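Design request, tokens follow.
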């Protein structure tokens, strides 16, 4: 059983980080509204590239789209992993992200992955590692900087990228290491610590969903927890954790995970989103004038 940080200590942590983020976001928003947003430069989209195992019946489940620019300068790249409760979703669900990141000089790869129920969580994590390996092998053809790879995921995708970035075994199978990931962006998930969700945070529907997805074997549960794999001796990449400010359970999950990362000397920043809008955090990311998008970009610029 994990020892969870107390609510009081977590509250102190989040208040400190919120003050820092709000100062940063305020400065960035002033700059953003003082000048026009950059328009996305012309870019190319190469769709339905197969990265996976020839034995998989549905090749679409192991395919990716590359949003890129044909230029001499190699661009850092975001690898985006969609949400959908681990059982649904598609890599076309990118909203404003490709154009926004390309306007900032960052290429964008959106991937599909094998879905439950025909596959397991660990298969999905392996697919993410396979895409990182694919980028390493194909970076030259798409003007990508293979040394600057950012994993980004929403909801179930946020859980998966966090798992891959804390448990080195998935990248190791692909011939890679945690040091091959520059940073991780986890967007709006309550699944950093599934045990905690099952004990005191999740609704009945959420608990039932997690039971179905993650099964009931204790070891399977433990190995599926990103928070379980955090330690100071792994070279875990830095994290930006974006959460819906009005949702208590995702906020508390973000707080607990950020505290565990910080205790392991891993840089972790929390970014509250959607304090002024009812739109989902993931859909707002990359839109003109969005404050937490600017805060995220400031974090990423320091890494790339």
């Amino acid at each position: 059983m994990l020892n969870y940080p107390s609510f009081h200590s977590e509250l102190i942590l989040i208040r400190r980080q919120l003050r820092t983020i709000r100062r940063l976001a305020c400065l960035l928003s002033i700059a953003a509204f003082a000048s026009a947003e950059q328009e996305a430069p012309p870019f190319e989209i190469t769709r339905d590239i197969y990265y996976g195992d020839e034995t998989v019946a549905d090749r679409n489940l192991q395919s990716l789209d590359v949003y890129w620019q044909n230029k001499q300068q190699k661009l850092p790249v975001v690898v985006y992993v969609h949400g959908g409760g681990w059982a649904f979703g598609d890599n076309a669900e990118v909203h404003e992200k490709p154009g926004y990141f390309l306007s900032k000089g960052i290429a964008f790869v959106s991937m599909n992955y094998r879905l439950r129920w025909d596959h397991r969580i660990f298969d999905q994590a392996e697919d993410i590692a396979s895409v990182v390996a694919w980028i390493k092998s194909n970076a030259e053809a798409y003007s990508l900087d293979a040394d600057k790879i950012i994993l980004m995921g929403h909801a179930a995708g946020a859980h998966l990228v966090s798992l891959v970035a804390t448990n080195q075994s998935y990248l190791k199978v692909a011939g890679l290491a945690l040091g091959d990931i520059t940073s991780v962006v986890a967007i709006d998930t309550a699944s950093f610590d599934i045990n905690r969700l099952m004990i005191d945070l999740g609704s009945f529907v959420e608990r039932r969903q997690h039971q179905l997805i993650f099964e009931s074997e204790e070891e399977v549960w433990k190995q599926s927890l990103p928070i379980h794999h955090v330690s100071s001796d792994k070279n875990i990449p830095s994290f930006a954790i974006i959460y819906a400010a009005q949702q208590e359970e995702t906020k508390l999950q973000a707080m607990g995970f950020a505290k565990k990362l910080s205790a392991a000397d891993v840089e972790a920043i929390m970014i509250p989103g959607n304090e002024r809008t009812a739109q989902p955090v993931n859909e707002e990311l990359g839109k003109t004038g969005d404050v937490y998008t600017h805060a995220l970009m400031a974090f990423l610029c320091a890494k790339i």
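Comment from the thread starter after seeing the answer: thanks! The chain has a mean pLDDT of 85.
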